[in-house]
Amino acid sequence: MPASTGVATRALRPARTVVRWAVRHGLPAVYLDRGARHGDPVGRLLRDGAVRDEPYPLYEELRARGPLSPGSIGLVTPSHAVASEILRSDRFGVGWDRSQAPRPIRWALAFGDELDATGVAEPPSMLVVDPPDHTRFRRLVSRAFTPRAVAAFEPVVQRTADSLLDALELRSGVVDLVETYAAQLPVLVIADLLAVPAERRADFLRWGAAAAATLDPGLPFRRYVAAERALRAMHAFLREHMARLRRDPGEDLVSRLVSLPEDEALTERELHATVMLLLGAGFETTMNLLGNGVVLLDGHREQWEALRAAPSGWDGAVEEILRHDSPVQITGRTATGTVSVAGRQVSPGTRVTVLLGAANRDPDVFDEPTRFDVGRPNARDHLAFSAGIHYCVGAGLARLEGVIGLRALSERFPALRVSGRPVRRDLQTLRGFEHLPVQLR
Ligand code: HEM
Description:
Number of strands: 12
Number of domains: 1
CATH class: Mainly Alpha
Strand content: 5-15%
Shape: globular
Bound molecules: protoporphyrin IX containing FE
């Protein structure tokens, strides 16, 4: 790029930031706030802090309205059957046709477009692209997550958990289990998978938290600016990291992605989107699984004791934690054609908010759904990892980390108790704890 163009680009950066925020967060916030004021459940869910802390009563209100009801931005479903149908349907996609958007929005999207400010839920992240691009990205990534590849990760996860627990042995009094364990384990495991230096983990945690915030629509301007700063730092790191692995490749997933043969090679933007998604999705969700699990088991002490006595039950326990308090609560799809769902005609372009956390408490599928029971026979029928072509590619690894992480913790600190008030993260799409004070002994 000529120097003058670079200077011009930098000079436009603040304006771009404002436009990007306005179109991605400012405008949705106006709609959602208006909806919330008129009692719209989706508006309340996404905009009301009290509902964010405890969304389950609102899900039940929605369930009473039926399996698919109108909200401020399209339709919304709390139903397991409808969510499964939509997530698996080829009449729904994750992308949206920008060419159909009003002209000012198209202009804003084009003007605000910049690789280094792109978040994990923006194209070309595989989370938000449809086939054939989705198929292409997914095929490349899923090679690293075959059952055999995940099983090979078991010693890494165990070793990482053990060394974190060794460090915890030296602590006394109340410790924050998120900071010392629940966040550390997944970030170290994903660092290993992507060959990123473990010393940078504090940066990843900071960047990941900012990236996670951008998943929620309607972010206030200041939080967006902070998030964008973190995204820029993350992209700068990725650029360096990929250049290093191009020069000196290893056996890891990123080395493989940057040295694909020409006919499969990803563009620079696609590489950034893919690695950034893996990095963020790899720990932002799993830390919630661990934190939510500890709090649930602390509240159901007899089940913690039963798992200590019979550790083979941890597989089922992790499924029940995922079901009962799902780390990802919300996703969405857009109808690509006219389609009939739950007796309703859905027209092309209609957005459906899919409440995974509500589907996982659907009484048509789960007996007494609010009861937490690690022995629940069909807990694994949950949609915590979604369904269809976007089904979580890292589900096997997440399950492994959940089982090893919680089992190892219970073995090392059998008397562990939550001590003080756990603090929820200020997020809607992801559900987990920011702080989790515990007494280890
Ligand atoms: C408890 C932990 C986790 C949960 C609850 C979770 C949940 C999810 C969900 C719900 C989706 C799909 C969203 C949708 O359908 O719109 C998803 C997609 C994805 N997850 Fe996970 N995830 C977890 C851990 C992981 C891990 C450990 C990794 C990677 C190492 C990962 C990588 C991905 C990727 C790359 C996608 C996009 C897949 C696609 O679009 O085809 N996740 N995850």
